[in-house]
Amino acid sequence: MSAPGPMAWPTFKESVFQEKGALAQERPLQRTPLRLPQRTTLPELRTVPVTELPGVGPKIAAALKDLGIISLSDLISHYPSRHEDLSNVKKISDLRVGEKATLVGKVVSTKKLGRPVRGRTPGFSVQLYDGTGYMLVTIWGRGWLLNQLMPDTSVVVSGEVQRRYGLQLAAKNLEVIDDPETARDTAHARRFVPVYPVNKGINARRMRDLVHRALHASGHILDPLPAKILARHGLVNLHDAVREFHFPADKEHLATAMRRLVFHELFLIQTGLAARKARLEKTEAGRSNRGDGRLLNSFLKSLPFGLSTAQERVIGEALEGMRLEKPMRRLLQGDVGSGKTVVAVAALLTAVESGGQGAIMAPTEVLAEQHFISISVALSDLPVNVVLLTGSQSATERRVALEAVKSGQAHVVVGTHTLIQRGVEFQDLSLVVVDEQHRFGVGQRMVFKEKGTTPDTLVMTATPIPRTLSLTLYGDLEVSVLDELPPGRKPVETGLVEVAERNDAYQALRAELEEGRQAYVICPLVEESEVLEDVRAAEELYEELAEEIFPDRRVGLLHGRMRAAEKREVMRAFRTREIEVLVATTVVEVGVDVPNASAIVIEGAERFGLSQLHQLRGRVCRGLHPPKCFLIGDPKTEDAQKRLEALCKYQDGFKLSEADLHIRGEGTLFGSRQSGIPDLKVAKLLRDIEVLVEARSAAFELVASDPDLKRPEHRPLRREIQDLLGKDVEWLFRE
Ligand code: ADP
Ligand code: MG
After folding, report:
1. What is the mean pLDDT of the chain?
2. What is the pLDDT of residue 55?
3. How confident is the model at residue 200 (pLDDT cuts 50, 70, 90)?
């Protein structure tokens, strides 16, 4: 027998092969006498395919794969979505109408329900007997459960008791369990039954079984977290936590296990981020950018308004960061219309004062040109040369611009992502501002690299990510928050208008125009793949508005497919009020700033995401007239309905994004993976804010004491982080 420890896998595999012939499909769990390595780690279990587990053939393996489960580690980390609490089971004879109840009983008979009712897929009903009485249980959808519900099968159901041809239970959940009479200590017969995400190929019972077997087969899971941290934060060890989270003895054990796993998940991510940050700070040379205020002060004096307190504070934070020797990496979060541009210009001028160049990058040409115009105008009395660099410039324009950037003649460079393309050389770039950063993706922010030194970066976003989320997403950035709007802003009166009543919205819009103000009309969103459709829809809407609804008004059209010069001309005309109604696609979604526009109509509003709607509405919160927003559409899904309701209810982007998280569920947030941060399995950011803050400070403390995680007691942790964050922290693992 080989020594216990990480290298003991062959023993496990041998024992599995010996077992295979003898396996019956429905063997009782407790009689699976595998000889196992006694101690293992999750990364090791990641190398063992589920097919090594007795009873997992190709069919089950395929069903597991559909759920993303490939290795033993995946299987034991396939956590229950909830637990069914059987300690609260009611008796059928005691039930009353209107009450919510959980029942355990045996199937007497089942019946398919025929027609769909109120648009819902038909389900089935089950006659249930629990020793005290019979109860009809109805459940919608999930027809594939039917063939598991043979007479005499034990099930647990929960739902609401209703009166409909006598009493019946409208069930939300139905799970097959072992017969509570005969099954004693099996996975199914506990008081807290775990309920797993499952699919057609694998039922709830089988899943519980497999997890149980996998836990059994895994031996003792070693804890990668240093003992000191466990002690300090009152955490149970990983082995117990995993087990108890699947099959808890009671509520308290469940809560303890969950807290540990949430901490674990967040701590690993935060440690990776902290290590990345430490590494960058060590390897990157920055320089101190100190301004003398000569440009900045005249700029601030020339503004037609005074700075808000929040703007003053945030400018202070940015200038302080630039003054430090190390490269600044700062995220500026501020709701739509909070006045981020002024902060950006203040930082850019400081870069120029300190003898370098500043660049600001915008996600669209429309926005880049707007910044170019407004910054040029704002700085027209100062000896500052502002240059524009976009993809649509003519070859000559581009050559002249590139030359100015290279020679240092250009002090402030405004552009789109072309700024980071090859062939753009700065004379001495010392600050980069990235506007509407969420539109770029995180990877791009690291691309700026200047001869030996890394410029300071200030990334700005109006996407109102709740602070907790920004801690996680941007764990290696400093965060500044503009938490106050400029004085005098009025809330945008927002209303939902049914399609049949859209003329009402246009009448209200007309009233605004008659007061000398301007308006946007946003075209419904068309699938991205159908760009031509998008253009056609925009043109049709434009024609309808120009010819039928506002024949007496100057209506303009702006969409992404127009030539750059045309777009420029339309925006110029809108800014100068030659165009009164601008029909546009989402090209105006971010950043566009025309304070005289006081109304916006959003057609097909149900198709937009919540943050998109908030951004669009933000186009009309910039002036002093009480602005209006009309959402036209009829939401067909519950989510769409909730989104539109949230928008009518809240003005504040932070509130809205929290609502959005609730509506969408948080899993999708990191879905795109563009952030380089893995999806969360156990933690829920809204719920686990406190644990996040705790895990974050623990992670940064640990990295401060051992930046490369090289100490022997930190090696297991390093291995876990490598598995989790992969390429993003590759350097951590180079010797
Ligand atoms: P965002 O944060 O969305 O980028 P902007 O920088 O475009 O916001 O500012 C929105 C509008 O508010 C602009 O018209 C700007 O001139 C104006 N603004 C900015 N700061 C103030 C302030 N302190 N007082 C009054 N208006 C301001
Ligand atoms: Mg902006």
Report:
1. 82
2. 83
3. confident
- CA separation, residue 407 to residues 243, 308, 376, 507, 581 (Å): 64, 36, 19, 55, 42
pLDDT for residue 281 = 78
Query: Looking at the CA of 362, which ligand is closest?
Result: 2
Nearest ligand 1 atom to the CA of 335 is 2
Q: How far apart are CA 449 and CA 643, in angstroms?
A: 41
Q: How many CB atoms lie within 10 A of CB 387?
A: 21
How many CB atoms lie under 10 A from the CB of residue 241?
24
185 contacts 30 by C-beta, under 8 angstroms? yes
Q: Whose C-alpha lies nearest to ligand 1, atom 1?
A: 337
Ligand 2 mean position, distance from CA 461 (Å): 8
Q: Is the CB of 342 under 6 A from ligand 1?
A: yes
Q: Quick one: which atom of ligand 1 is closest to the CA of 343?
A: 6
* pLDDT at 686 > cutoff 90: no
Instruction: Examine the pLDDT at 601 and tell me if it is beyond 90.
Output: yes
Ligand 2 center–CA 436 separation, angstroms: 7
> For residue 169, which phi and psi values (nearest 5 degrees)?
-110, 120
Instruction: Give the Å distance between the CA of 540 and the centre of ligand 2.
Output: 30
Q: Is the CB of 311 under 6 A from ligand 1?
A: yes
For atom 5 of ligand 1, the residue with the nearest CA is 339
State pLDDT tens for residues 350-382: 999 999 999 999 988 889 999 999 999 999 999
What integer is the mean pLDDT of 666-694?
A: 65
Cβ within 8 Å of residue 705, ≥6 positions away: none
Is the sign of the CA dihedral 501, 505, 506, 508 positive or negative? positive
pLDDT digits (tens, 9 = 90+) for 209-221: 899 889 988 889 9
For ligand 1, atom 19, the nearest C-alpha belongs to 339
Cβ–Cβ < 8 Å for 732, 275: yes
Place of tokens 């899904």: 637
The whole-angstrom separation of Cα 359 and Cα 381 is 20
Q: What is the pTM of this model?
A: 0.69
Verify whether ligand 1 is closer than 6 Å to residue 341 (CB atom): yes
Strands 192-195 and 82-85: antiparallel
DSSP code for 49: B
Regarding the beta carbon of 305 and ligand 1, being less than 6 Å apart is answered: yes
Answer whether 152's CB lies under 8 Å from 131's CB. no
Q: SS3 helix, strand, coil % of the chain, rounded to 5?
A: 45, 20, 35
- pLDDT higher than threshold 80 for residue 69: yes
Paired with 599 in beta bridges are: 519, 628
Span from the CA of 639 to the centroid of ligand 1 (angstroms):
32
